Each structure stands twice: as C-alpha cells, then as structure tokens.
Amino acid sequence: MAREHPAEIFMPPNVLKAKAGKGMGLDRATLARATAVLTEIRTELAQGLEREIEALLLAGKDVEHAPASPDKRGALRAAAAALAKAARLSDFPLVARLAASLGQWTALDPAGDPAGAIKLLRAHTDAIRAVMKDTTRNPNDRLAHILVETLEARVAEAAAA
Predict the structure, then answer these.
(1) Are 157 and 106 contacting, i.e. CB atoms less than 8 angstroms apart?
(2) Dist. CA 135–CA 101, nearest whole Å
(3) If DSSP states are collapsed to H, E and C, what string results for the chain?
(4) Is CB count within 10 Å lower at the N or C end of the chain?
(5) pTM, whole model, 2 decimals?
(6) Model confidence over 131-155: pLDDT tens digits?
(7) Stretch 15-25: mean pLDDT, rounded?
(8) Do 100 and 84 touch, CB atoms closer than 8 A?
(9) Half-sphere exposure of 9 toward its Cβ, with a 13 Å CA cutoff?
(10) Would you state the CATH architecture of domain 23-160?
(11) Nearest to residue 48, comparing CAs of 98, 7, 88?
(12) Chain segment 107-135, per-residue pLDDT in tens
C-alpha cells in the first residue's frame, strides 16, 4: 500500500535567532551601547572604591590620634569592611585582603604596644595605597602577595600576644 503523503521534515523556527537578528551577529550600535554601559559601570565602581579608601584613611587618622577609643576603632572596622566589599566588587582581591586584615587588627587591644599598633595601622593603609597606585589586581603578583601575607602574619602575631 503506497503512502498518500510522503514524510515531511519540519524545522521549527529558532526563536533566539529571530530575537538576536540574522546570523546571531550584533550590530555596531548595540556593541557601542554595551561598551558605553560597561565603561560607566567601571567608572562608578572605581569612584566607589576611591570613596571607601578615603573613608578608611580618615578613620585611620582618627585612630592614630586616639588608639584606645572603641568608637574610633569601630568606625575603622566598619570602613575596612566596606572597603573589603567594594574591593571584591571592583576586582581588587589584594585590597580586599588588606582591608580584612585591618578589620581584624581593630579587634585587638592597643594597650600592650600602642606605638607598634599605630605602625601596623600605617603599614596597612600604606599597602592599600601602594596596591591601588599600581592598580595591582592580580592576586598572584609575587611582591604584593608577600606584602599581604606579611601584614596578615603581623596581625596574627599581635592577636597571639
């Protein structure tokens, strides 16, 4: 018995291709808009990071003048936490680690060695400035890695003392 209708092959329409345009290519205008948006986001993140660094430096100066003040140390801890978060968002993992280390430092009692505590605070803020000046984003950068590990070790030593 012969078939009256031969088998038909049906290719359903590709909805994604239809939405994106022919050949899945992007036109120059769309690419230019996307590039402009990414540039704007990067600029906003960089400005936010700079504001957080400035807040941390101001809080650090306040702690230098009154190292035993719990309010000043609390403000520095909050500034360090905000900077660590902003640095993670801006893809600066070394700055995030330094800020986290500084946040741990604020929990220590400065009464034992106030001069040493201030030196450690300054070392952290100077390291953050240096990493930002060089815009070191690579967590595998040898020199920056040694710097971060050394400061973290010093905070751990101060905590153990």
Answers:
(1) no
(2) 19
(3) CCCCCCCCCCCCCCHHHHHHCHHHCCCHHHHHHHHHHHHHHHHHHHHHHHHHHHHHHHHHHHHHHCCCCHHHHHHHHHHHHHHHHHHHHCCCHHHHHHHHHHHHHHCCCCCCCHHHHHHHHHHHHHHHHHHHHCCCCCCCCHHHHHHHHHHHHHHHHHHHC
(4) N
(5) 0.70
(6) 887 766 666 778 877 888 888 888 8
(7) 61
(8) yes
(9) 0
(10) Up-down Bundle (1.20)
(11) 88
(12) 877 666 777 788 888 899 988 888 887 76
Token digits for 4?
A: 């009256």
Token digits of residue 97: 């680690």
For residue 89, the one-letter residue type is L
